[in-house]
Amino acid sequence: MSSQSSGLRHWRERFSALFQDHEIFIRTHGHVRFLRISAVWQKRVALIAGLVLFAWAGVTLAVFVNQLLTSGERAEVAAKQAATAASEARIAKYRDRVAEIAADLDERQGQLEEWKKDYFGDEPLPTDAKSAAAADAPADPAAKPLETSAIDPRLPPEAQALARLEARQEAFSAHLLAAVKGRAAKAEVAVAQLGLDPTALVRNAAAGRGGPFIPFRGRPGQADALGKSFAALEGALFRMEVLERTLVAIPSGQPAHVLMLSSSYGYRSDPFTGAGAMHAGLDFPGPLGTPILAAAPGRVTFVGQKSGYGNVVEVDHGQGILTRYAHLSGFTSRVGEQVAAGQQIAKMGSTGRSTGSHLHFEVRLNGVAVNPRRFLEAKADVLEVKADARQRVGALAAAAPARRGAR
Ligand SMILES: [Zn+2]
User: Fold this and answer.
1) Cα(355) to centroid of ligand 1, in Å?
2) N or C terminus: which one in the chain shows less Cβ crowding within 10 Å?
3) Where is the composition biased (Low complexity) (predicted)?
C-alpha cells in the first residue's frame, strides 16, 4: 500500500515538475512587458488540451467503428444478393435441365413406342426376352441402361421423378432390344439354312445394296442422339429387318404344281448344241398352260421376250433377290404389279430355246444366278420362321405408305 502511494506521489511529482512558473518578457514598440504564466495555469491548459484531444480521438474512433460496421453490413447485403442471384441461376438451370430432360424423354418415348408398334404390333413383348436381356447385358455394354447419375441428387423432386422415368425407359429399351435380337437370331438361322450368308446380307444392306429396303422412319443419326441404347436398338432393328425381309424374299414357293427336274441346275450338255453349258435354273416339265406362280411376294419388273428364254416374267422380291420364269406360253401379270406368293403370273409353254413344254425357273441374288433347290426344299421349321416374318414384314409394308406420306 505504501509503495503504491509512494509510486503515485512520484508520478505526481514528475507531472508537477513538467509545469513550472514561467516569466516571459515581451517587447512591443519599445515597451517591455512582463507576462507571468503560473504552473497552475499551465496545468489547466494542458488538462483542457488533453480533454479536447481525448474527445477528438473518441469521436474519430466512433466514426471509424461506424464506418467499419457499415461496410461490413454492406458486404453482408452484397453477399446475400449474390447468393440469391446464384440460387436463382441454379434454379433456372434446374428448370432448363428439367425441361430439356423432359423433352428428351418425350422424344425417346415416342421413338420406343413407334418401334414397338412397327415391329411387334400391339402384342406384348416376349417375356423371356427380359431375362435374356439381363443375361445379355454384361456382354453388350451398349444394351446397359444409361447412367442416370448424371442428374444431380440435389435437384428438385420433378427432376428426380424424371430420372426414375428415364431408368424405366432404359429398362424397356433393353427389353425391346432383347426381343429384337431374339427374332433376328431366328431369322438368321433360317437364312443360313437356306444357304445364304446372313452377315454378308446385312453388310450389303447397310452399304445400300440389295434392292429396295424400307428402313424405320427417322433421320439418320437420330437414334445416336437419343443415346447409346437407342443406337444399339436401331442397329439391331436394322439387322432384324434385313434378315426377315430376306427370308420373306427368298423364293421358296413352288413356281408350278409339277415335279421339278432336280438334276437340271449346273453344267450339262446343251440340248441344241450338245456342248457343255451352264444351266442356271431348274426345269419343271408339265402340260402347256400350267399356271406359273410367283415363288415369293414381290413386284413384276419384266414381262416380254428375252433371247433364248422366249416369253419371260421377272419378279423382284427386294433384298437383291429376283426370280425369272421362262419359255412361257402366256402372261397373266403386268409390269409394276405387286404379286403375292403363289399368285399366278403366267402360263407354261415352250417358247425360246425349248424342246418341250416346261418352266425354266431361275433365282438371282444381286444379279448372280443361284441354285434355287435349297429354297424350294426348305424345311418346315425354316418355312415357319419365314411365314412368321412374312406376317410381320407384311404388316410393316402396309404401314409404310402412310409413314412415307407423313415424312
Ligand atoms: Zn431351263
Assistant:
1) 10
2) N
3) 130-145
